[in-house]
Design goal:
Structural class: alpha+beta
GO molecular function: catalytic activity
Distance between the termini: 40 Å
Oligomer: single chain
CATH architecture of the domain at 2-93: 2-Layer Sandwich
Protein name: DNA-3-methyladenine glycosylase 2 family protein
CATH superfamily of the domain at 2-93: DNA-3-methyladenine glycosylase AlkA, N-terminal domain
Largest sheet: 5 strands, antiparallel
Domain HhH-GPD: 134-279
Strand content: 5-15%
Strand order of the largest sheet: 1-5-4-3-2
CATH topology of the domain at 2-93: TATA-Binding Protein
Organism: Phytohabitans flavus
Mean pLDDT: 93
Order of helices and strands: EHEEEEHHHHHEEHHHHHHHHH
Helix content: 40-55%
Length: 304
Amino acid sequence: MSGDILAATEPFSFDMSLRALAGFAPCAGGHVITDGRVRKAFPLGPEAVVADVGPAREGSGVALTLHADRQLLPTERAAVHRAVAHWLGLDDDLSAFLDVAGRDPAMATLLRAAHGLHQVRFSSLAEGAVYFALIQRSTQWYAAARKRRIAAALGPSLSVDGVEHVAFPSLAVVAAQGDADLIRFAGNRLRARRLREVVEGVAALDEEWLRTGPYEEVRKRLLGLPGVGPFTAHALLLRVLGRPDGAPLGMAQFEDAAREVYGDPPPSPAELHEAYGSSIGWWAYYVRTARSWQPEDSGLSIAA
């Protein structure tokens, strides 16, 4: 067991992270929130490491305690640190978004309600790729339940204080499953085939390049994978990789959210893209995540 401090780009509020995690339905059951802290398992090869995360006593960041069955090597600790930072969006720089949103009167109440919110996302590329493969022609509830079954069957686990924490398995582990097992996990043959296509396609790409390469090049590469359409590509880029350069604003949930923020008629997707530029994904995340956080008398009720 070891303790560390992970810094976060300001403004950052761990309370906002916990609130976002509590409402993150696709990952329900994948973490445990208790007494202002959260515990989550991360894979380290065939083993699991449990991260216990709480607010830092001083400065902007989080206090992190790692639980493992053995002494971790410095490189292993660093790998888990990176995974936690990605998961909680600690390094995200929202300054460009906050600058534009701060001059957008319709966003004022939401910004106050969500001050310090950073994007919480899927804990790994594997978890996100599996979920967005499973949700195609399905529902959020079923996709999340099937994802949990995959984790329970294939992921490494570790018990801490009598609670079993399961880490989501790697892309390689999921891809190694036979067709019969994938059908069992996915629910039918078509969805299992799509799951294999997405998992194998994403596994063949360099994750660091996906996170840092030119946005349009990464998006085109993802769109070239079997089983990956525009929705899945955008979802992987924003909700898994934390890349805010784009968002599918033409989808009904974003159109409804824009209408409730700005009134009817709302700004068009093109107008929002022009206003927020490469931080449009943070606009989309804020209006979707903090939709119920505003005071009841604010006059706004962001659509679900």
